[in-house]
Amino acid sequence: MENEQKELLTKLANKLKSQKRTKKEALKTLQSAKILDKKGNLTNHYKNLRKVLIKSD
To answer: How far apart are CA 41 and CA 57, in angstroms?
Structure first.
């Protein structure tokens, strides 16, 4: 993943993190986008997001 892409994803994650949503709403959104599976794990197509998610915590 390019550094620019990581930076953009980090900014997006921080922006989304600042929005007031319940955990249930956030999980539902990510599951409907096929980013998370029904158990809340990242799907194979988005496994690189672990790098960004760990960085933004």
So the answer is: 16
- Full-model pTM: 0.56
Hey, what are 30's tokens? 């990510």
Q: Do 37 and 43 meet the contact criterion of CB atoms below 8 Å apart?
A: yes
Rounded Cα distance, 15 and 36, in Å: 19
State the angle between helix axes of 49-56 and 3-18 in degrees (0 to 180), rounded to the nearest 10: 50
Rounded-to-integer distance, Cα 18 and Cα 21, Å:
9
Say which amino acid occupies 29: T
Q: What is the pLDDT of residues 5-31, one digit of tens each?
A: 888 888 888 887 888 888 899 889 889
Structure tokens at 32: 């409907």
